[in-house]
Design goal:
single chain, 192 residues, alpha+beta, 5-stranded mixed beta sheet, 7 helices, 5 strands, elongated
Length: 192
């Protein structure tokens, strides 16, 4: 079906002042002008297109937008898939601490650098990690950091941060799924 035919299907029927083909043509013209900026109010300016039909059209666009956005986000259901998201920090000369926020289906919501440390250390506090996770309404998080030294062995500080984050996550209802250390070529997990 063409866009025009899809619009006719969404609109359904015309009114006593305009048939469905005319309404679909007007909406299609608006779509070409406004694109993704098309607003409900724009549709109400189309003669003979009332609030109910404008709502149906906007609902169709919103459903499409949500499907498209969700399908573009990768599912992170293994440490290897998380590591794929960490390519940019592997060869950094300072320690980068990163948080991946995930929805209930383990789809990536966002990846954020929480802190940038020195050659050998990165200081991180649970409030910085979970602030964005709360904003994202994340169901879970994966945290990771690089070791510029190339040593995959977690330090005591790494283990302590993991313990604090796990405890904070339990209080907030946001699961800490994993804490990963990456180097140029390898990765390791800090056991929770």
């Amino acid at each position: 079906m063409s866009d025009y035919e899809l619009l006719m299907a969404i609109i359904g029927s015309g009114t006593q002042y305009a048939d469905v083909t005319k309404l679909a043509r007007e909406v299609q013209k608006l779509l070409k002008e406004k694109g993704s900026e098309l607003a409900y109010e724009d549709l109400l300016n189309v003669k003979s297109l009332g609030p109910a039909k404008a709502t149906n059209i906007m609902a169709g666009f919103e459903l499409w937008r949500r499907q498209f956005e969700v399908s573009e986000r990768p599912i992170i259901d293994s440490p290897e898939k998380a590591v794929e998201q960490l390519v940019d920090i592997r060869d950094k000369k300072q320690e980068y601490f990163v948080c991946l926020t995930l929805d209930g289906a383990n789809r990536l919501i966002a990846k954020r650098i929480i802190t940038i440390g020195t050659l050998t250390a990165s200081l991180v506090h649970p409030r910085e990690v979970f602030a964005e996770a709360i904003t994202d309404r994340a169901a879970s998080i994966i945290v990771a950091h690089n070791h510029p030294s190339g040593n995959l062995e977690p330090s005591q500080a790494d283990r302590d941060v993991t313990t604090r984050l796990r405890s904070a996550g339990e209080l907030l209802g946001i699961d800490l799924i994993d804490h990963i250390i990456v180097t140029d070529t390898h990765h390791a997990r800090i056991h929770l």
